[in-house]
Amino acid sequence: MKRFRWTTLLLSMSLLLPSAPEIAQADANLHIYRNESGQIHTITGYLGRFQGDSESARALHALQLVQDTYRFTDPNRQFSYENSHLDEYGLRHQRLHQRLNNIPIFGRDVLLHEMDDALVGVSGFCEPLTPNSDMPTVKAEEAIDAAQEAVQNPTPSEDLSADLVYYPTGDQANLAYLVRVNWLGDEPGRWTVLVDALDGSILAKINNIETSDKSVQTTMRSGIYYLIDESRPMFEQFGSSIRTYTFQIGTQSQAQLTDLDNIWDSPEQSAAVDAHLHAGRIYDYYLQHFKRNSFDGLGSPMRSAVQFGHNYANAFWDGAQVIYGDGDDQIPTPLSAALDICAHEWTHAVIDTSAGLLYTGQSGALAESFADALASVIEGRDWTLGEDLFPVGSKQTALRSLAEPAAYGQPEHMRDYRTVEEDNGGVHLNAGIPNRAFYNFATRIHSREQAGQVWYLALRDYLTPDADFSAARAATEQACAVLYGPNSQIAHDLATAWLSVGVE
Ligand SMILES: [Zn+2]
């Protein structure tokens, strides 16, 4: 994986993507990518040079280079600088967040890609929006009440906060309060609710918890062994560990798991041992193959909790830990028994701390799909998800398949895309389309692992929170160009993989 100079990269990129429209008078290597609605989500090509003293000044200056294309008027007032990171291929990625009237716009980040002081790409939707107001008429406390009512929060909490944002619909920006409501219980919730700041109505509510379907490293203290793994590099560098707890079939309090002889063989321990071992394998995979130390790349502790609730046939990342139920009649196995399910949930943690894909509509389906794709890469065995949860002879044999989404009720081509209300706008449903694109790509190039590298890099450096399928295609193509060369056979195979599921 040699370091490319942007000129080589861009020259070949233009050959790779003949269908992309070009700016007539500009550099022939410049490409502007739009989705079906005509919105720009990606620009690649030489766009000019960075200037300025600080990181943020340079980023804001660079935005002026694409100001006319995106039609924004004053980058200094419309964007706030978030962070930047230099990748292993010599590209620096600067993240900015869009604002209007000094209020952040929900889900709207823009990424600037820099090489050798040149702006060589922009990712993100950032065309101008028209605000409906800049003054809320609803009080924050009223918005919190409305949000709690909207999600039927069974344990109203007094320490919720409501932050003003703009929520985009079409080219309008709606002034809204963003309220986050989280709880554990029989039906746990992790909601993001957007309440109209002018009339108190609910503009959107997103449940970030999965909604639809479905040698042990320990530590001894005072003669008792705990499911605490301090053997990984994260411990030496950051003092953090992999820890596994149990809810003991309840939903509120967690206990540490202990054993006196360090032979973890009782039936109650098996779910916890599985969660613990799988977290360790997932940690190792992310570190060795993606150089990502723990889910956030910062070596943070990886905490799991098993035996959540009674007959709870689900698993989810709650923002701080991965929680597993013991299953039910349909899924008769504790969910931590399946490595791919564990890897799917931990990849949600990776997504939350990288692209931050919003768990609704197409960006939510992308979150589901990237979690499935990387889970299949980490497991490295088959194209189905959750097959280990079903004993031999069961009627159902898996939860989903990347090879045959339709066999599990998912669309696998854009012509079958389903617009639905439930499941956050069909995030588990429409994930079948990008899942099939990933399968097409990995099988065409005969390497699940290389395909995984492209998907991971797209997730880390090229996707923004409100990305759609079209933007995901462009993001994976940019990642592929950096990794394997823009005019490589792999890059052509990737384009074919997306085209064959109808994503332009
Ligand atoms: Zn998921």
UniProtKB/TrEMBL annotation:
One of its GO terms (cellular component) is extracellular region. Residues 1-26 form the signal peptide. Its cofactor is Zn(2+). It holds the Pfam family Peptidase_M4. GO terms for biological process: proteolysis. It is found in: Secreted. Residues 83-124 form the FTP domain. Its EC number is 3.4.24.-. Residues 355-503 form the Peptidase M4 C-terminal domain. Residues 212-351 form the Peptidase M4 domain. The active site is at E345, H428 (proton donor). It comes from the Bacteria. CDD domains: M4_TLP (cd09597). Keywords: Hydrolase, Metal-binding, Metalloprotease, Protease, Secreted, Signal, Zinc. SUPFAM superfamilies: Metalloproteases ('zincins'), catalytic domain. GO terms for molecular function: metal ion binding; metalloendopeptidase activity. Belongs to the peptidase M4 family. Extracellular zinc metalloprotease. This is Neutral metalloproteinase. The lineage of its organism: Bacteria, Bacillati, Bacillota, Bacilli, Bacillales.
